[in-house]
Design goal:
424 residues, alpha/beta, Aspartate Aminotransferase, domain 2, Aspartate Aminotransferase, domain 1, 2 domains, seven-stranded mixed sheet, five-stranded mixed sheet, binds pyridoxal-5'-phosphate
């Protein structure tokens, strides 16, 4: 069966919970063993003191190690990416920092795509150097040869241990070829000293892109976004092969950054509607993007549904994505004053950062999510003062277009001189 069918049943047996159709919240820190022998057996498995016997499962011990809500959620999340295992965290940043800490040791080098999420960027530039981990950035427009040359120039060929990418790149949606990143990892890693590929798939997943099918070893999510989808929780997830997930899971046990039973319960509810939400959001985004494309006060629209045929991103899109998702960025005619007028005039769409929720959200990357990016990088990344980013929700598309229309009209009233101040 398809994942959307299994989201209501997989991994849960009502007879173990008084027949409850939905998993109850297992709001407990610890679990009673039936016998001392059972407790001993569970710990032997949990601590890796011996291999599991055939059909033996790790029993419930303590909610930092395992909890029914966490386990059911992880089993269901695996289905979308066809992963062996998944670990859920208390935030997307927790998931990301745990992967970086597990796979990078002093002396190692991280190869990563830039721009990346602000929190990830901060961790790479301000935390990793302190533990002796270097990093080399590449841009979505860089070719295999560009990146390989940069690695060699820095004498890092033998020290690349992780290739980390975020695609589409936020906020302008350039795509990065996952297959190319796999090749880079294979070129610089060896069998005895491998380099892994991890993809932050928050924007497209787990529905519209499946990075593991294109060579990624691990897929990372901020589950705060589409997976949670209701702007009411913070969570993260990592999926991958059994051997790598064992390492991620073990570090999670000792960092203690797993999600709580209540957060997992909310996410289980969210997973039931994930496919319908993301499908509707994508359909709405296509309608809104088409409207914006033709508006005289809109200079340029960035949307995966509008990629130029023949462009690099378009080729990657056709090979590695199945739908354009629901993130739109666009340049409004003018600069910051016009962008702010537009944002302040929105009535249905909320002015807030974050994305992927049922309600549409709009923000101004240059002064909000990307405020910390230096001016030169901003210019390179197309983050101008006139750029607005919108995450499209499940509202009626006609109402969203009405809101765009009236807010664009409101942006017109900015005084004439400002209209000429198109500044970067
Ligand atoms: C939000 C986000 C994160 C961080 O996730 P949190 O749940 O806020 O910790 C990481 N990557 C991307 C692409 C995001 O959008």
């Amino acid at each position: 069966m398809q994942p959307e069918s299994l989201m209501m049943t997989h991994g849960y047996r009502p007879e173990l919970s008084e027949g409850a159709v939905k998993p109850p919240i297992f709001q407990t820190s610890t679990f009673a063993f039936r016998t001392a022998e059972e407790g001993k057996a569970f710990f032997e498995i949990a601590y890796g003191l011996r291999d599991k016997n055939q059909d033996e499962e790790l029993g419930l011990i303590y909610s930092r190690i395992n909890n029914p809500n966490l386990e059911i959620l992880e089993n269901r999340l695996c289905l979308w990416d066809k992963a062996d295992d998944c670990a859920v965290f208390e935030s997307g940043m927790s998931a990301i920092s745990t992967v970086l800490l597990e796979f990078l040791k002093p002396g190692d080098v991280l190869l990563f795509s830039s721009p990346t999420y602000g929190g990830t960027d901060h961790f790479i530039h301000h935390f990793l150097p302190a533990i002796g981990v270097e990093s080399i950035a590449f841009r979505p427009s860089d070719t295999y040869a560009d990146i390989a040359a940069r690695v060699k120039e820095k004498g890092a060929e033998k020290r690349i241990k992780l290739v980390y990418l975020e695609t589409p790149a936020n906020p302008t949606g350039e795509l990065i070829d996952i297959k190319m990143c796999r090749k880079l990892a294979d070129e610089f890693g060896t069998e005895s000293n491998p380099a892994y590929v991890a993809v932050d798939n928050t924007y497209m997943g787990p529905l519209w892109a499946h990075p593991m099918q294109h060579g990624a070893d691990m897929v990372i999510y901020s589950a705060t976004k589409y997976i949670g989808g209701h702007s009411d929780l913070i969570a993260g997830a990592v999926s991958g092969s059994a051997d790598l997930m064992k390492r991620v899971r073990t570090l999670r046990t000792f960092l203690g950054n797993m999600a709580s039973p209540h957060t997992c319960w909310l996410l289980l509810r969210s997973l039931e509607t994930l496919k319908v939400r993301m499908s509707q959001q994508t359909e709405n985004a296509q309608a809104v993007a088409a409207y914006l494309e033709n508006h005289e006060l809109v200079e340029k629209v960035y949307f995966l549904g509008n990629l130029r045929p023949g462009s690099r991103s378009h080729k990657i899109y056709r090979e590695q994505y199945s739908a354009p998702g629901a993130m739109i960025s666009f340049n409004i005619k003018g600069g910051e004053p016009e962008a702010f007028k537009f944002l302040n005039a929105l009535k249905l769409v909320k002015l807030a950062v974050s994305l992927g929720s049922t309600e549409s959200l709009a923000q101004h990357p240059a002064t909000m999510t990307h405020a910390g990016v230096c001016p030169k990088m901003k210019a390179e990344m197309g983050i101008t003062c006139s750029l607005v980013r919108i995450s499209i929700g499940v509202e009626n598309a006609k109402d969203l277009i009405w809101d765009m229309e009236q807010a664009l009209e409101a942006s017109r009233t900015v005084s004439e001189p400002n209209l000429r101040a198109v500044t970067v």
